[in-house]
Amino acid sequence: MSSSTESKQSTKDCKDNLQLLMHLPMLSGLPMEPIKLLAYLCKRHVFRPGQTIFRQEEVDANAYLILSGKARLLLEEPQEIALVEVGEMDFIGVLSLFCEMKRIYTLRAETEVVSLTLSREKFQKTLEQFPDVGPRIFEATARSIIRWETHFVREHLAKCPECRNHMGIPPT
Fold first, then answer.
1. What's the confidence (pLDDT) of residue 162?
2. What angle do CA 128, 145, 57 make, to 5 degrees?
3. Where are the domains of the chain?
4. Sign of CA dihedral 119, 94, 32, 89
């Protein structure tokens, strides 16, 4: 993320960040204090059109809430395949807040993208300070993954018989 532009955090930004974070499903219903802390710890970044926000197979410890602009998820290996366009209020890379992992795809800005970026380090420190919210955040995240999987299974597996042979079976 070294080529992005990080803007300075103002009091207005913190208030705006708070309003944005309160609407995220993984944080909804939490006490105000941990959300305020996360709002303070988030940083705004600006990415230029064509700039890679994160790259497939690289470890990136950040989650990105897209505030404005459009970006594209891409598979780069073995050849570049455009997946889906993401935009305003899409929260990308949430699982990286919980543990170190390689990205399974690349995220590239198509237009100027402004994101609210949260690092795993700052997220984990917040959980240490407010340990009672960790299980609630994890449950909300798991529910979101289940909703996505349910939608994916209903939409995709009906069209892909080969994929059905691997559904629900982790690779060994």
1. 75
2. 80
3. 5-161
4. positive
